[in-house]
Design goal:
single chain; mainly alpha; two-stranded antiparallel ribbon; 6 helices
């Protein structure tokens, strides 16, 4: 049996990877996505992420989890709630768009999305007012220094 560069038998390394599932552990996913491990556990509690468990009990994430976490972050950053994200996440195939099959859009989900769109619109208007106030303040200060 050949030894690995670290001096351990290669077969032992393969067995360890099999037992551990061969996927990423939570710390690796955190490093790759910039999302703290605590937040990744929260996503799991909210039924947004579904890691496998290795024989040793550690969470194991597939490569696709990197993309999934990026989707979740983008949707949360846009102001969507975890409840809405949980409902639409199975139908997303890109981080920049929501593609729901028309059959998946129930009246309840449509109502949630309409309410969320209205809430986001209110936030946009508030942010626009704040932006305008900041610009007005900066202009007034610059005019005084002028």
């Amino acid at each position: 049996m050949k030894a690995s560069p670290a001096g351990r038998p290669r077969e032992a390394g393969r067995e360890r990877r099999r037992q551990n599932g061969g996927g990423m552990r939570i710390g690796q996913l955190s490093e790759r996505t910039g999302v703290p491990t605590r937040m990744l556990r929260y996503y799991e509690e909210q039924d947004l992420l579904h890691p496998e468990r290795a024989d040793n009990g550690y969470r194991q994430y597939p490569e696709s989890a990197v993309y999934r976490v990026q989707q979740i972050r983008g949707l949360l950053d846009s102001g969507l709630t975890t409840e809405i994200i949980r409902r639409i996440l199975p139908f997303l195939d890109r981080t920049d768009a929501i593609h729901l099959d028309p059959q998946c859009l129930t009246p309840e989900l449509a109502g949630l999305l309409e309410a969320e769109a209205a809430r986001i619109q209110q936030r946009v208007e508030c942010l626009s007012r704040n932006r305008d106030a900041i610009h007005a303040y900066l202009a007034a200060v610059r005019a005084l220094r002028g």
